[in-house]
Amino acid sequence: MNNDKVFQMDFGKVYDFLLNKAVRKGRTQAEVDQVICWMTGYSAEQLALLRSSSVPYGEFFLSAPQLNPNRTLIRGVVCGVRVEEVQDPLMREIRYLDKLIDELAKGKPMEKILRG
Fold first, then answer.
1. What's the pLDDT score for residue 10?
2. Interval 66-77: pLDDT, tens
3. What is the model's pTM?
4. Distance between CA atoms of 109 and 116, rounded to whole angstroms?
5. In this model, does residue 62 exceed pLDDT 80?
6. Rounded to an integer, what distance in angstroms lies between the CA atom of residue 116 and that of residue 102?
7. What count of Cα atoms within 13 Å lies in the side-chain half-sphere of residue 67?
């Protein structure tokens, strides 16, 4: 899948995928929201509005109020790709979030996920 297709995906649909991945492993929607809000700077209320809108996934990141500076501490592999080596800045943000949700689904403590 090329990056443009990913960037144009509906955020609400991507959110549902991320949520289902975490919930299947025993995590909660509140935890998923906490991770997304930590990374992007959106409030819980803003996130809820964006989930029900048709905002593209790429625009969700480009419009983020305050990307957390500690997100650059995220390291590892998602879908066979090392997140810190992704060249496209927008795709790197997407991979960072994928990695955080993977860590959440694997049962990692929230303090470690949020690089605290």
1. 96
2. 999 999 999 999
3. 0.94
4. 10
5. yes
6. 17
7. 16
